Amino acid sequence: SMQIDDLQMAHDRALELYQLDPQSSESGLALIAVLVRGAHWGEAGPILDKLLAQDPTDKRAHLAKGIVEYNLGNMASASEHLQASLGQGAADAEGHYMLGMVAKQAGDIPKATEEMEASLAGNPNKMEALSSLGQFYLQLGDAEKAKTVLERAIQKGSLDSQNHYQLAQAYRKLGMNNEAREQMEIFRKLSARTVPQPSGETPVSPK
Q1: 116, 90 contact by CB (below 8 A)
Q2: Are 146 and 137 in contact (CB under 8 A)?
Q3: Residue 20 — very low, low, confident or very high, per pLDDT cuts 50/70/90?
Q4: CA 116, CA 69: separation in Å to the nearest integer?
Q5: What is the mean pLDDT of residues 177-197?
Q6: In sequence order, which residues have a C-beta less than 8 Å from that of residue 61 and are 6 or more positions away?
Q7: H-type alpha helices, 38-126
Q8: Which residue of 24, 36, 121, 170 pairs with 143 in a disulfide if CB–CB is 3.0 to 4.6 A?
Q9: pLDDT of residue 111
Q10: What is the pTM of this model?
Q11: How many Cα atoms within 13 Å fall on the side-chain side of residue 166?
Q12: Are 86 and 98 in contact (CB under 8 A)?
């Protein structure tokens, strides 16, 4: 497909620039961005290790390494690198989001909730964080907060059918049965239309 070709072209170009100057953290991180988009975790790891050996304080490299480690299932290492990536201002939205996903994997929903709130403080429009936060509030039994966050995600144009499903659950818990039925109807329509996505639809921000 066009997208795959574009990604391959971007990969070849980024690799070429990196090979011209392997000491440059800019060309290294540009290559990493392409590898992460294409989910080439194995290829990204060693390049990031080299970048971090050159500059152990490179917060962008730590963030990318945290994402790679998360996707390889190395949660302790992911957490360590994601913590080290914080302190970039608005860019911390992604680090907090990923730390929330690590906490979710560990079954620590209060911690996951805290991280998603921090992610949204940095980027109020981060769809994946809104969706996850709504889900976590529901799991913690706070249907009112879940309703607010999920309505916001849908209002901002999220096409994730799960938001409608979760919102239906929140409405049901709040006794809003007509609204719950409406949301289930939308959920069913969207589910019938969409091809199931592989889990973690975008490598950078898995669900």
Answers
A1: no
A2: yes
A3: low
A4: 19
A5: 86
A6: 25, 28, 29, 32, 48, 51, 52, 55
A7: 41-54, 59-71, 75-85, 92-105, 109-122
A8: 170
A9: 98
A10: 0.79
A11: 28
A12: no
